[in-house]
């Protein structure tokens, strides 16, 4: 199974895919040159994913401002982290901002606040018992 990539890279990938889908749909419109209304529908349908991709790019720009740049301990390159846990942009090493979760089994559950807090509470409980 392919490892999931860095979130921002993944979102950008989706936005790029949308542009291509939009262009492909517009291109299909060429086959309907004889029927202007059908061609128009394809052109309109084609602009929708392109508009969505612009919104996604804009949104990525906004969330990029909230990311934290860290040095990856694995490949020593700098990477942007979105949320509490994310993957390295370069080597796809799972990274976390929570000291408590370091060395623990990696899960995207930690992006959900109450799940992360539950896990941290469990870890603290374990440490007390030792
Ligand atoms: Zn890395």
UniProtKB/TrEMBL annotation:
The chain crosses the membrane at residues 12-32, 38-60. Keywords: Cell membrane, Membrane, Transmembrane, Transmembrane helix. Pfam families: DUF2614 (PF11023). InterPro entries: UPF0295. The keyword Transmembrane applies. It comes from the Bacteria. This is Uncharacterized protein.
